[in-house]
Fold each of these.
Amino acid sequence: EVQLVESGGGSVQAGGSLRLSCAISGNTRYQSCMAWFRQAPGKERERVASVRSVVGIAYLDSVNGRFTISKDKVNKILYLQMNNLEPEDSARYYCALSDMWCNDFLTNYQFWGQGTQVTVSP
């Protein structure tokens, strides 16, 4: 069974940086899309960044240029480097895997982590 465990969240001031990690275990042979989502209180969960195989990196418009998604295939870790953080980035961040194309539909993703909290103060 596939398991995802996020880490790296915390509290920072606006303009600061954090790097989130998602450790992946289990058989991920058929998982072609790896993504980061976030959910703030009272808001829907939204896709922040995703990567499919060796091509197809996508970012939410509001984080493009500030966040970078990457993966360590050998150690099976997905990263999200977040720079120049803004209070609007405060949310719980989740990593997710899909055996299909990357998209925004939550049901497209078969596996989810428990999330890690990011809080950005003004």
Amino acid sequence: QLMESGGGLVQPGGSLRLSCVTSGFDFGDAYMSWLRQAPGKGVEWLSRIGYDNSVTHYADSVKGRFTISRDNAKNTLFLQLNNLKTEDTAMYYCAKPISRSSTSARREDYRAWGRGTQVTVSS
């Protein structure tokens, strides 16, 4: 089970920190991902992280602004969102990919998918 939190309304240029608390599997033995879906658009893969914080990958659209991290002792995944733009408005999801190297945006390529947390960037 995956449960996201930390979303909200923020002004352009602002920051948020999203959390994803996990249960039901060995979190420390799982690659994890963040994805988002903006209103009226398809799902976009954002980032993935390896078993610890040493291996991370990002989509070009968020590279340099978003930072993925994890706390294996707390079974929790994070996504730090900085310098937010209006186009970052979306529902944000954490997910457990079937393939470690996946950058897929298809739900069927993930073993588990959270219910999402809404991020709205507006002045």
Amino acid sequence: EVQLQASGGGSVQAGGSLRLSCAASGFTFDNYVIAWFRQAPGKEKEAVSQISISDGKTYHRNSVKGRFTVSNDNARNTVYLQMNNLRPEDTAVYYCAAALGNGGYDMWGQGTQVTVSS
């Protein structure tokens, strides 16, 4: 079965850290762009970070630059989102998604809740 499995969410205080994992099964990441999205209550889903597996290029939205790092481990077929210096406004359900080449994100993992208290 082809799927993405997101994990690693939790509850931390402001300034804390969490590392989210997105593991693929049934396929390999080689030619994919893997992205992290988040959705806070009452807000639209927004893209947070992404990594192009083929060339390692990354993107982070401005509000997380310098705090979040996206990386991949090809041996484990897993993408990570290291989140440091978390803020209450980072509270959301985080999802990972996969896009093949320049295609749309048509494969999604289940969400993992991140809660940051002040």
Amino acid sequence: QVQMQESGPGLVKASQTLSLTCTVSGVSITTASYYWSWIRQPPEKGLEWIGAIAYTGTPYYNASLKSRTSISRDTSKNHFTLQLSSVTPEDTAVYYCNAKDTFRYYWGQGTQVTVSS
């Protein structure tokens, strides 16, 4: 069973870089056909896909956030990370890590990140 847990600061100041880590258990992040994503949900809004890193290590980004986003991984720790730079209060959201294999999706519980102005 795939389990995922987000971690990182819950409060970030505007203009700084938001950094979150998703620690995965139950499967290696290098297992074929898995894609590891970051998704967020701002208050009163829908889900927004931020980007992903494939089991190969190739990253993919939402075009609207690409200039500020970096997703990387540490295979020795079986985790992947999100860095979102130059944050503003509009980046306040619940951030989720998500995994997709051939047949299903898996979700972390989510972590609230608030950007203070």
